[in-house]
Predict the structure of Methyltransferase domain-containing protein.
Amino acid sequence: MPDDAIDPDEEARRRAGLALANGDPTGWFEPLYAAAEAGEAVLPWYRGEPSPELAAWVAGRPGNGRRALVVGCGMADDAELLAAAGYETSAFDVSPSAIKAVLNRFPDTVVSYRTADLLTPPAEFHYAFDLVVEIMTVQSMPKDVHDPAIASVSGFVAPGGTLVVGAVAEESIDLDTWEGPPWPLSKAEVESFARDGVTVTSLDRVRDDSRWWAEFSR
């Protein structure tokens, strides 16, 4: 069992530091998910339920078979929510152990799960999805890779499609004392999802202004 004295956020930062020292901005996820599966660590972001903002957004927006993609699906509560709402849902995570845990957790799932890296995404994802959901994945990587990660996310949106983005607001934290991960997104970074034909539909601060919730369309 994980040591209750170990702070999950501090442990995530320790693992991220090791990966970054090796020049691998996403390399800390697999060891952390593998340790969590073995009962030796805790996922600091896991809540066991979908994003409340996404749940509210999806309510009244049935999928009707439209294709959806969840970026960095983690333990897959958001992906399963979309599937239940009638979206033909795909989801990916960089960690094979995360995908294994998801398939154990949802053995009868209709979601198509796979291992993939946001920084080098599958070519078939390009312009392929009617709905793309990016919640707190870009911010899990350091600032110097935010722009290519954001470009990848925007590139998944099909013509006529929608992108929703949720992230901790950089403006709500003290940057002088903050140590990532996560590396929250500034307003300018959230706005920068609008590229290559993608435009901003709405941009709001939620949860007492601590987070961004944004919608885009192509």
User: Anything to note?
Assistant: The two ends are 46 Å apart (CA to CA). The chain has a mean pLDDT of 91.
